[in-house]
Amino acid sequence: MFDVLIKNANLPDGREGIDIAIKGDKIVDVGPRIEAEAGEVIEASGRLVTPPFVDPHFHMDATLSLGLPRMNVSGTLLEGIALWAELRPTLTREALVERALRYCDLAVAQGLLAIRSHVDTSDPALVTAEALIEVREKVAPYIDLQLVAFPQDGYYRAKDGVESLNRALDMGLDIVGGIPHFERTMADGAASVSALCKIAADRGLPVDMHCDETDDPMSRHIETLAAETVRYGLQGRVAGSHLTSMHSMDNYYVSKLIPLMAEAEINVIPNPLINIMLQGRHDTYPKRRGMTRVRELMEAGLNVSFGHDCVMDPWYSMGSGDLLEVGHMAIHVAQMAGIEDKRKIFDALTVNSAKTMGLQGYGLEKGCNADLVILQARDTLEALRLKANRLVVMRRGKVIARSAPRFSELKLEGRPTAVDAADYAPLRPGEL
Ligand SMILES: [Zn+2]
Known about the structure:
Layout: E1 2-10, E2 18-23, E3 26-32, E4 38-50, E5 53-58, H1 77-87, H2 93-109, E6 112-120, H3 127-139, E7 144-150, H4 161-171, E8 175-176, H5 186-203, E9 207-211, H6 221-231, E10 238-242, H7 251-263, E11 267-269, H8 272-278, H9 294-299, E12 303-304, H10 323-333, H11 339-347, H12 351-357, E13 372-375, H13 380-386, E14 390-395, E15 398-402, E16 408-409, E17 418-419
Protein backbone atom coordinates (compact mmCIF):
# COMPACT_ATOMS: atom_id res chain seq x y z
CA MET A 1 0.00 0.00 0.00
CA PHE A 2 1.49 3.32 -1.15
CA ASP A 3 0.43 6.82 -0.12
CA VAL A 4 0.58 8.24 -3.65
CA LEU A 5 0.92 6.56 -7.04
CA ILE A 6 1.67 8.72 -10.09
CA LYS A 7 0.63 6.89 -13.25
CA ASN A 8 1.92 7.08 -16.82
CA ALA A 9 4.65 9.70 -16.51
CA ASN A 10 7.27 10.71 -19.05
CA LEU A 11 10.65 11.34 -17.40
CA PRO A 12 13.37 13.87 -18.32
CA ASP A 13 15.70 11.02 -19.42
CA GLY A 14 13.20 10.05 -22.16
CA ARG A 15 11.55 7.04 -20.46
CA GLU A 16 7.79 6.95 -21.04
CA GLY A 17 4.84 5.22 -19.40
CA ILE A 18 6.49 5.20 -15.96
CA ASP A 19 4.72 4.97 -12.60
CA ILE A 20 6.15 6.55 -9.44
CA ALA A 21 5.20 5.15 -6.04
CA ILE A 22 5.50 7.28 -2.90
CA LYS A 23 5.35 6.34 0.75
CA GLY A 24 5.63 9.07 3.37
CA ASP A 25 8.13 11.63 2.08
CA LYS A 26 10.13 9.27 -0.18
CA ILE A 27 9.92 7.76 -3.64
CA VAL A 28 9.84 4.00 -3.04
CA ASP A 29 9.47 2.61 -6.55
CA VAL A 30 9.83 3.82 -10.14
CA GLY A 31 8.98 1.67 -13.14
CA PRO A 32 6.43 0.70 -15.79
CA ARG A 33 2.96 -0.37 -14.56
CA ILE A 34 3.34 -0.58 -10.79
CA GLU A 35 0.25 -2.51 -9.64
CA ALA A 36 -0.58 -1.69 -6.03
CA GLU A 37 -3.12 0.08 -3.87
CA ALA A 38 -2.48 3.73 -3.13
CA GLY A 39 -4.19 6.36 -0.95
CA GLU A 40 -4.17 8.74 -3.93
CA VAL A 41 -3.64 8.06 -7.63
CA ILE A 42 -2.49 10.98 -9.80
CA GLU A 43 -2.79 10.48 -13.57
CA ALA A 44 0.16 12.09 -15.37
CA SER A 45 -1.34 10.98 -18.71
CA GLY A 46 1.90 10.96 -20.69
CA ARG A 47 3.07 14.32 -19.39
CA LEU A 48 6.54 15.17 -18.15
CA VAL A 49 7.30 14.56 -14.48
CA THR A 50 10.52 16.18 -13.33
CA PRO A 51 12.32 16.79 -10.07
CA PRO A 52 11.69 20.39 -8.93
CA PHE A 53 13.40 23.38 -10.49
CA VAL A 54 16.42 24.67 -8.59
CA ASP A 55 17.65 28.28 -8.81
CA PRO A 56 21.34 28.49 -7.83
CA HIS A 57 21.60 32.29 -8.05
CA PHE A 58 19.06 34.79 -6.73
CA HIS A 59 18.77 38.01 -4.68
CA MET A 60 15.88 37.52 -2.29
CA ASP A 61 16.69 40.65 -0.27
CA ALA A 62 16.03 42.80 -3.35
CA THR A 63 13.21 40.93 -5.06
CA LEU A 64 9.82 42.62 -5.57
CA SER A 65 11.28 46.02 -4.58
CA LEU A 66 10.83 47.42 -8.09
CA GLY A 67 10.16 51.18 -8.00
CA LEU A 68 11.59 51.68 -4.48
CA PRO A 69 12.64 54.39 -4.03
CA ARG A 70 12.57 55.07 -7.80
CA MET A 71 12.98 53.24 -11.11
CA ASN A 72 16.34 52.47 -12.75
CA VAL A 73 16.35 55.10 -15.52
CA SER A 74 19.28 53.82 -17.58
CA GLY A 75 18.50 50.17 -16.85
CA THR A 76 22.21 49.49 -16.31
CA LEU A 77 24.00 47.30 -13.76
CA LEU A 78 25.83 50.26 -12.23
CA GLU A 79 22.68 52.38 -11.81
CA GLY A 80 21.07 49.28 -10.29
CA ILE A 81 23.86 49.04 -7.72
CA ALA A 82 23.54 52.80 -6.97
CA LEU A 83 19.76 52.47 -6.67
CA TRP A 84 20.09 49.53 -4.29
CA ALA A 85 22.45 51.67 -2.15
CA GLU A 86 19.67 54.32 -1.96
CA LEU A 87 17.07 51.75 -0.98
CA ARG A 88 19.22 49.83 1.52
CA PRO A 89 19.15 52.30 4.46
CA THR A 90 15.34 52.30 4.37
CA LEU A 91 14.95 48.51 4.49
CA THR A 92 13.13 47.02 7.46
CA ARG A 93 13.19 43.42 8.57
CA GLU A 94 9.40 43.16 8.28
CA ALA A 95 9.28 44.42 4.70
CA LEU A 96 12.19 42.20 3.65
CA VAL A 97 10.56 39.13 5.17
CA GLU A 98 7.21 39.91 3.60
CA ARG A 99 8.61 40.43 0.10
CA ALA A 100 10.75 37.28 0.33
CA LEU A 101 7.81 35.17 1.53
CA ARG A 102 5.68 36.50 -1.34
CA TYR A 103 8.41 35.54 -3.78
CA CYS A 104 8.59 32.05 -2.27
CA ASP A 105 4.82 31.65 -2.83
CA LEU A 106 5.38 32.45 -6.49
CA ALA A 107 8.35 30.08 -6.63
CA VAL A 108 6.31 27.19 -5.24
CA ALA A 109 3.60 27.80 -7.84
CA GLN A 110 6.35 27.56 -10.48
CA GLY A 111 7.70 24.27 -9.09
CA LEU A 112 10.86 26.02 -7.87
CA LEU A 113 11.69 24.36 -4.56
CA ALA A 114 15.36 25.18 -3.93
CA ILE A 115 16.98 28.61 -4.14
CA ARG A 116 20.44 29.94 -3.37
CA SER A 117 20.12 33.62 -2.53
CA HIS A 118 22.89 36.16 -2.15
CA VAL A 119 22.33 38.44 0.84
CA ASP A 120 23.95 41.86 0.83
CA THR A 121 26.21 42.25 3.86
CA SER A 122 27.51 45.76 3.03
CA ASP A 123 25.40 47.59 5.62
CA PRO A 124 26.84 46.71 9.05
CA ALA A 125 23.33 46.74 10.53
CA LEU A 126 22.83 43.42 8.66
CA VAL A 127 19.04 43.75 8.61
CA THR A 128 19.15 41.80 5.34
CA ALA A 129 20.88 38.81 6.95
CA GLU A 130 18.52 38.83 9.97
CA ALA A 131 15.47 38.91 7.71
CA LEU A 132 16.64 36.22 5.31
CA ILE A 133 17.62 33.89 8.16
CA GLU A 134 14.04 34.24 9.43
CA VAL A 135 12.75 33.49 5.92
CA ARG A 136 15.03 30.45 5.57
CA GLU A 137 13.45 29.01 8.70
CA LYS A 138 9.88 29.87 7.70
CA VAL A 139 10.08 28.35 4.22
CA ALA A 140 12.12 25.27 5.20
CA PRO A 141 9.07 22.95 4.97
CA TYR A 142 8.69 23.78 1.27
CA ILE A 143 11.84 25.48 -0.07
CA ASP A 144 15.51 24.71 0.52
CA LEU A 145 16.95 28.21 0.86
CA GLN A 146 20.72 28.71 1.00
CA LEU A 147 22.13 32.12 1.90
CA VAL A 148 25.37 33.60 0.58
CA ALA A 149 27.14 36.38 2.50
CA PHE A 150 27.53 38.80 -0.38
CA PRO A 151 29.60 42.00 -0.06
CA GLN A 152 27.71 43.94 -2.76
CA ASP A 153 29.78 47.14 -2.30
CA GLY A 154 33.07 45.22 -2.22
CA TYR A 155 34.76 43.16 0.49
CA TYR A 156 37.61 45.68 0.69
CA ARG A 157 35.94 48.62 -1.03
CA ALA A 158 33.03 49.02 1.41
CA LYS A 159 33.94 50.72 4.67
CA ASP A 160 33.01 47.82 6.95
CA GLY A 161 33.00 45.12 4.27
CA VAL A 162 35.42 42.68 5.90
CA GLU A 163 33.92 42.84 9.37
CA SER A 164 30.29 42.74 8.16
CA LEU A 165 30.78 39.69 5.97
CA ASN A 166 32.42 37.75 8.77
CA ARG A 167 29.69 38.77 11.22
CA ALA A 168 27.01 37.63 8.75
CA LEU A 169 28.72 34.22 8.58
CA ASP A 170 28.79 34.12 12.39
CA MET A 171 25.03 34.79 12.34
CA GLY A 172 24.54 31.64 10.23
CA LEU A 173 24.70 32.46 6.54
CA ASP A 174 25.72 29.34 4.64
CA ILE A 175 28.16 30.39 1.93
CA VAL A 176 31.04 32.83 1.38
CA GLY A 177 30.35 35.35 -1.42
CA GLY A 178 32.46 37.96 -3.18
CA ILE A 179 32.54 40.52 -5.98
CA PRO A 180 36.20 40.86 -7.03
CA HIS A 181 35.54 42.87 -10.22
CA PHE A 182 33.88 45.60 -8.09
CA GLU A 183 36.89 46.11 -5.79
CA ARG A 184 38.96 49.25 -6.45
CA THR A 185 41.73 47.53 -8.43
CA MET A 186 42.46 44.20 -10.10
CA ALA A 187 44.98 43.59 -7.31
CA ASP A 188 42.37 44.23 -4.60
CA GLY A 189 39.98 41.94 -6.47
CA ALA A 190 42.54 39.12 -6.56
CA ALA A 191 43.36 39.68 -2.88
CA SER A 192 39.65 39.49 -2.00
CA VAL A 193 39.31 36.16 -3.82
CA SER A 194 42.22 34.74 -1.87
CA ALA A 195 41.01 36.07 1.49
CA LEU A 196 37.46 34.81 0.94
CA CYS A 197 38.64 31.33 -0.11
CA LYS A 198 40.72 31.16 3.06
CA ILE A 199 37.65 32.08 5.14
CA ALA A 200 35.71 29.27 3.41
CA ALA A 201 38.53 26.78 4.05
CA ASP A 202 38.82 27.81 7.72
CA ARG A 203 35.07 27.67 8.32
CA GLY A 204 34.39 24.60 6.14
CA LEU A 205 31.93 26.49 3.92
CA PRO A 206 31.29 26.62 0.17
CA VAL A 207 32.13 29.69 -1.95
CA ASP A 208 29.91 31.42 -4.51
CA MET A 209 31.22 34.65 -6.00
CA HIS A 210 29.85 37.17 -8.43
CA CYS A 211 32.91 36.86 -10.63
CA ASP A 212 33.89 38.96 -13.65
CA GLU A 213 30.37 40.30 -14.25
CA THR A 214 31.73 42.70 -16.86
CA ASP A 215 32.52 42.94 -20.59
CA ASP A 216 36.20 43.57 -19.81
CA PRO A 217 38.24 40.77 -21.45
CA MET A 218 41.02 41.50 -18.95
CA SER A 219 38.81 40.88 -15.91
CA ARG A 220 40.28 37.53 -14.99
CA HIS A 221 39.32 36.86 -11.39
CA ILE A 222 37.97 33.46 -12.40
CA GLU A 223 41.58 32.40 -12.97
CA THR A 224 42.47 33.45 -9.42
CA LEU A 225 39.31 31.81 -8.07
CA ALA A 226 40.18 28.50 -9.75
CA ALA A 227 43.80 28.64 -8.57
CA GLU A 228 42.85 29.50 -4.96
CA THR A 229 40.21 26.74 -5.01
CA VAL A 230 42.95 24.21 -5.78
CA ARG A 231 45.36 25.80 -3.28
CA TYR A 232 42.86 25.55 -0.41
CA GLY A 233 41.53 22.11 -1.46
CA LEU A 234 38.01 23.45 -2.10
CA GLN A 235 37.42 21.50 -5.34
CA GLY A 236 33.71 21.04 -6.10
CA ARG A 237 32.66 23.49 -3.35
CA VAL A 238 33.21 26.70 -5.30
CA ALA A 239 30.86 28.44 -7.74
CA GLY A 240 31.69 31.21 -10.20
CA SER A 241 28.54 33.23 -10.89
CA HIS A 242 28.12 35.21 -14.12
CA LEU A 243 31.68 34.96 -15.61
CA THR A 244 30.48 37.26 -18.40
CA SER A 245 34.00 38.54 -19.16
CA MET A 246 34.74 35.07 -20.58
CA HIS A 247 32.45 36.04 -23.47
CA SER A 248 34.95 38.73 -24.48
CA MET A 249 38.24 37.02 -23.61
CA ASP A 250 40.91 36.05 -26.08
CA ASN A 251 40.34 32.49 -27.34
CA TYR A 252 43.91 31.35 -26.71
CA TYR A 253 43.70 32.49 -23.10
CA VAL A 254 40.37 30.70 -22.63
CA SER A 255 41.92 27.49 -23.96
CA LYS A 256 44.18 27.57 -20.90
CA LEU A 257 41.54 28.86 -18.48
CA ILE A 258 38.82 26.25 -19.00
CA PRO A 259 41.06 23.27 -18.10
CA LEU A 260 42.15 25.16 -14.97
CA MET A 261 38.47 25.64 -14.03
CA ALA A 262 37.84 21.93 -14.68
CA GLU A 263 40.77 21.00 -12.41
CA ALA A 264 39.21 23.14 -9.67
CA GLU A 265 35.74 21.62 -10.36
CA ILE A 266 34.22 25.10 -10.45
CA ASN A 267 30.43 25.17 -10.61
CA VAL A 268 29.54 27.67 -13.33
CA ILE A 269 26.40 29.78 -12.90
CA PRO A 270 25.44 31.97 -15.88
CA ASN A 271 22.33 34.13 -15.48
CA PRO A 272 21.01 34.36 -19.05
CA LEU A 273 18.15 36.85 -18.51
CA ILE A 274 20.28 39.32 -16.60
CA ASN A 275 23.44 38.83 -18.68
CA ILE A 276 21.69 39.54 -21.98
CA MET A 277 19.98 42.56 -20.41
CA LEU A 278 22.93 44.18 -18.60
CA GLN A 279 26.08 43.30 -20.56
CA GLY A 280 27.27 44.84 -23.82
CA ARG A 281 26.02 48.26 -22.72
CA HIS A 282 29.18 50.11 -23.81
CA ASP A 283 29.01 48.54 -27.28
CA THR A 284 27.48 50.24 -30.28
CA TYR A 285 27.15 47.59 -33.00
CA PRO A 286 27.90 44.76 -33.16
CA LYS A 287 26.69 44.32 -29.56
CA ARG A 288 28.05 41.46 -27.44
CA ARG A 289 25.69 38.98 -25.85
CA GLY A 290 27.54 39.00 -22.56
CA MET A 291 26.84 35.42 -21.55
CA THR A 292 29.71 33.12 -20.65
CA ARG A 293 30.79 30.23 -22.90
CA VAL A 294 28.11 27.73 -21.93
CA ARG A 295 28.65 25.13 -24.63
CA GLU A 296 32.45 25.06 -24.27
CA LEU A 297 32.25 24.84 -20.46
CA MET A 298 29.74 21.99 -20.64
CA GLU A 299 31.88 20.16 -23.20
CA ALA A 300 34.88 20.47 -20.87
CA GLY A 301 32.87 18.60 -18.22
CA LEU A 302 32.15 21.57 -15.94
CA ASN A 303 28.90 21.61 -14.01
CA VAL A 304 26.84 24.46 -15.48
CA SER A 305 23.57 25.58 -13.90
CA PHE A 306 21.46 28.64 -14.71
CA GLY A 307 20.25 31.24 -12.23
CA HIS A 308 17.29 33.61 -12.39
CA ASP A 309 19.28 36.29 -10.47
CA CYS A 310 16.61 39.00 -10.29
CA VAL A 311 12.84 39.40 -10.34
CA MET A 312 11.38 42.91 -10.25
CA ASP A 313 14.23 44.63 -8.44
CA PRO A 314 16.65 47.55 -9.07
CA TRP A 315 18.45 45.58 -11.79
CA TYR A 316 15.62 43.88 -13.66
CA SER A 317 11.99 44.93 -13.94
CA MET A 318 10.86 41.59 -15.37
CA GLY A 319 10.98 37.94 -14.29
CA SER A 320 8.36 35.52 -13.02
CA GLY A 321 10.13 32.91 -10.91
CA ASP A 322 9.99 30.60 -13.92
CA LEU A 323 13.22 28.68 -14.50
CA LEU A 324 11.87 27.56 -17.89
CA GLU A 325 11.93 31.21 -18.95
CA VAL A 326 15.60 31.25 -17.90
CA GLY A 327 16.27 28.10 -19.94
CA HIS A 328 14.34 29.47 -22.91
CA MET A 329 16.61 32.53 -22.95
CA ALA A 330 19.71 30.36 -22.48
CA ILE A 331 18.87 28.31 -25.57
CA HIS A 332 18.70 31.48 -27.65
CA VAL A 333 21.69 33.33 -26.24
CA ALA A 334 23.96 30.26 -26.23
CA GLN A 335 22.55 29.15 -29.60
CA MET A 336 21.99 25.65 -28.23
CA ALA A 337 19.18 24.48 -30.46
CA GLY A 338 19.98 20.78 -30.97
CA ILE A 339 17.89 18.06 -29.31
CA GLU A 340 20.75 17.04 -27.02
CA ASP A 341 21.48 20.73 -26.33
CA LYS A 342 17.95 21.28 -25.07
CA ARG A 343 18.18 18.28 -22.77
CA LYS A 344 21.42 19.72 -21.38
CA ILE A 345 19.71 23.08 -20.82
CA PHE A 346 16.89 21.36 -18.92
CA ASP A 347 19.48 19.58 -16.74
CA ALA A 348 21.05 22.98 -16.05
CA LEU A 349 17.74 24.06 -14.43
CA THR A 350 17.35 20.89 -12.38
CA VAL A 351 20.00 18.21 -11.71
CA ASN A 352 23.04 20.43 -12.36
CA SER A 353 21.80 23.18 -10.07
CA ALA A 354 20.96 20.58 -7.41
CA LYS A 355 24.59 19.50 -7.66
CA THR A 356 25.79 23.12 -7.39
CA MET A 357 23.73 23.52 -4.21
CA GLY A 358 24.77 20.10 -2.87
CA LEU A 359 21.14 19.03 -2.35
CA GLN A 360 20.71 15.59 -0.80
CA GLY A 361 18.00 13.13 -1.91
CA TYR A 362 17.26 15.08 -5.11
CA GLY A 363 15.96 13.20 -8.14
CA LEU A 364 13.34 10.74 -9.31
CA GLU A 365 15.09 7.52 -8.34
CA LYS A 366 13.97 5.09 -5.68
CA GLY A 367 14.97 6.46 -2.26
CA CYS A 368 14.90 10.13 -3.30
CA ASN A 369 12.71 12.72 -1.60
CA ALA A 370 9.18 12.72 -3.03
CA ASP A 371 9.61 16.19 -4.53
CA LEU A 372 8.41 16.56 -8.12
CA VAL A 373 6.54 18.62 -10.68
CA ILE A 374 4.05 17.49 -13.34
CA LEU A 375 4.21 19.78 -16.36
CA GLN A 376 1.67 20.36 -19.12
CA ALA A 377 4.16 19.14 -21.73
CA ARG A 378 5.21 15.72 -22.95
CA ASP A 379 9.02 16.10 -22.76
CA THR A 380 11.83 18.45 -21.76
CA LEU A 381 12.02 20.04 -25.19
CA GLU A 382 8.31 20.86 -25.11
CA ALA A 383 8.55 22.10 -21.53
CA LEU A 384 11.22 24.61 -22.60
CA ARG A 385 9.43 25.63 -25.78
CA LEU A 386 6.16 26.29 -23.97
CA LYS A 387 7.47 27.42 -20.58
CA ALA A 388 4.93 24.82 -19.60
CA ASN A 389 2.17 25.13 -17.04
CA ARG A 390 2.88 23.41 -13.69
CA LEU A 391 -0.09 21.10 -13.10
CA VAL A 392 1.09 19.58 -9.81
CA VAL A 393 3.92 20.54 -7.46
CA MET A 394 4.76 18.01 -4.75
CA ARG A 395 7.09 18.35 -1.77
CA ARG A 396 7.91 15.38 0.47
CA GLY A 397 4.91 13.43 -0.83
CA LYS A 398 2.33 16.23 -0.40
CA VAL A 399 0.80 18.30 -3.19
CA ILE A 400 1.61 21.93 -2.33
CA ALA A 401 0.49 23.62 -5.57
CA ARG A 402 -1.89 22.70 -8.34
CA SER A 403 -3.02 24.44 -11.56
CA ALA A 404 -5.84 23.61 -13.94
CA PRO A 405 -4.64 22.52 -17.39
CA ARG A 406 -4.45 25.53 -19.70
CA PHE A 407 -6.46 25.47 -22.92
CA SER A 408 -8.47 27.89 -25.02
CA GLU A 409 -12.01 27.42 -26.28
CA LEU A 410 -12.37 28.03 -29.99
CA LYS A 411 -15.47 29.27 -31.73
CA LEU A 412 -14.66 28.68 -35.40
CA GLU A 413 -16.91 26.88 -37.77
CA GLY A 414 -15.54 23.54 -38.89
CA ARG A 415 -12.48 23.77 -36.59
CA PRO A 416 -11.75 22.09 -33.23
CA THR A 417 -13.60 23.46 -30.20
CA ALA A 418 -10.51 23.67 -27.98
CA VAL A 419 -6.77 24.27 -28.32
CA ASP A 420 -4.15 22.84 -25.96
CA ALA A 421 -0.86 24.53 -26.88
CA ALA A 422 0.98 21.53 -25.43
CA ASP A 423 -0.56 19.36 -28.14
CA TYR A 424 1.14 20.95 -31.14
CA ALA A 425 4.54 19.28 -31.33
CA PRO A 426 4.95 17.46 -34.65
CA LEU A 427 3.60 13.94 -34.40
CA ARG A 428 6.14 11.18 -34.09
CA PRO A 429 6.41 8.35 -36.63
CA GLY A 430 3.53 5.97 -36.05
CA GLU A 431 1.29 8.68 -34.56
CA LEU A 432 0.18 10.14 -37.91
ZN1 LIG B 1 23.59 38.19 -8.69
